[in-house]
Amino acid sequence: MAQSRRVERVASLIRREVSELMIGGIKDDRVNQGMVSVTSVEVAGDLQHCKIFVSIYGSEEDRAQAMAGLGSASAYVKGELGRRLKMRRTPEVVFVLDRGIEKGTSVLGLLNRLEGERQTKGEPAEASEF
Q: Where along the chain do its domains lie?
């Protein structure tokens, strides 16, 4: 039980620090092109590996460029985390593109379009309350 709380605490600290690094620490222009935000962090139970899930707003090309920049910056991010968090051993950092927000926006767009079509046809909106 205490182990899982420790892992959650470390994940939360990593998320906060990486979010700050996104704002002013990572100087790679590829990362700063798109709007990059940290959506979640998963840390292995042994604290040796860390997946940082990021959402990138922009075109597919912007996403690819930002992910390449984040990949290049992973050693820098690991070093900064070690310095800031003062951990005995800093986990290996891997950035993963999180498409959850993008998919959610797409689904909402489809639902809104269906609702619009239903209203133009004059059908009653039975289940439109979410």
A: 2-121
